[in-house]
Amino acid sequence: MPDSATFPEIPLFDLQLQAEDLDAVAETLRSGWLTMGPRTAAFEEAFAAQLGARHAVAVSSCTAALHLSYLAAGVGPGDEVIVPSYTFVATASAAIYCGATPVFAEIVSRERPQLDPEDVARRITPRTKAVCAVHFAGYPAPVDRLRELCESRGLALLEDAAHAPSATLDGRKLGTWGLAGAFSFFSNKVLSVGEGGLLCTDDDQVAAAARSLRSHAMTSGTWSRHNRVTDTYDVVGLGFNYRTGELRSALLLSRLQRLESEIAARRALTRRYRELLRDLDGVIVPFTDAEVEQSSGYVMPIMLEQRGRQSAVGLFMRERGVQTSIFYPSVHRFTAYRQRYPDITLPVTELASETELTLPLYPPLTHADQDRVVEVLAAALQA
Ligand SMILES: Cc1ncc(COP(=O)(O)O)c(C=O)c1O
Fold first, then answer.
1. Secondary structure (DSSP) of 234-269
2. Residues annotated as part of the active site
3. 19-256 to CATH, choices 3.30.460.10, 3.30.420.140, 3.40.640.10, 3.30.565.10
4. Is any ligand 1 atom within 6 A of the Cβ of residue 90?
5. ∠168-173-179 over CA atoms, to 5°?
6. Is the CB of 88 under 6 A from ligand 1?
7. Does the Cβ of 100 fall within 6 Å of ligand 1?
8. Domain covering 259-382 in this structure, CATH number
9. Ligand 1 atom, smallest distance to 64 CA
10. pLDDT digit string, tens, across residues 281-329
């Protein structure tokens, strides 16, 4: 863990790497090949296999994966993409990168802070091209119902699975329900390596487009030229530099071996939190015990029943060494979004954003620390 003088006693997340992770990175450094190469290909293969998807395309971030998946769904200028506002801003920004408009739909409730299929249906217009569901906190959005809806209306279903590696709905991995799924390997995520992302899909054309566009739509990469597969390249479209690199891929491959055991630890801690919070007045705990078993256990969100207490409770806890966070401020209320799209009101989303607090959760969190988090929260609620 970083310098204790600058970090709270119980941080929101804590990444602990093992000796084998460091060895994998050191070996990659010694290999002298740092941009995309064999380790990236091996990671893509391993990630696709654990997902049960035909293709996995590693990229520089989940934001890049979202952008590529929107483009692959044919999203362009004048189109609309229906997204939740209760998400990280990237879900919406990726639509704007394509020249399209994000259309914000409501979440169901604070107990179920996921895209509401009925509200999505109401917001479909002739311009709608796609719907992007977010698996908030690693719990399944209703992608079964959204898929039916999208199929019946000729729309692409996309999944922002940034929080949800190896999480499931009806036994099927999240990220594999729609045309494409986007994952994040950002530093506080379940499978974190600092920065990085991945697009998965069963569609050969979407995969080919993503592979091409992640590296300037060039017909060959540096690795194949290095191996003399080809000496030159053409550029066949307007692509991007959304490449990843071998150091990240080596670390991801190494960490992927522990993904299931770390998720099991996250679920056990989540079950324990739910038990500890059960009788605490003034707190709503989203989702159900059964859903914990399907989730990646990315974060532990709670909602304070009353509005207007969020920052005071967060501050009280921080002063006592417990870090909390807000997942998420509503995207439509950010300055840049209000300027572009004034007059949007989403009462359920706004209530969730103004009452949510995220508690510390990471595999090595001790029971003593967890007890302390709940004790400080209870004191904060009474203060
Ligand atoms: C729901 C959601 N979508 C997208 C992203 C963007 O991920 P990245 O930082 O890898 O671009 C995040 C990251 O915080 C996220 O939480």
1. -B-S---B---BHHHHHHHHHHHTTHHHHHHHHHHH
2. 189
3. 3.40.640.10
4. yes
5. 130
6. yes
7. no
8. 3.90.1150.10
9. 11
10. 999 999 999 999 999 999 999 999 999 999 999 999 999 999 999 999 9
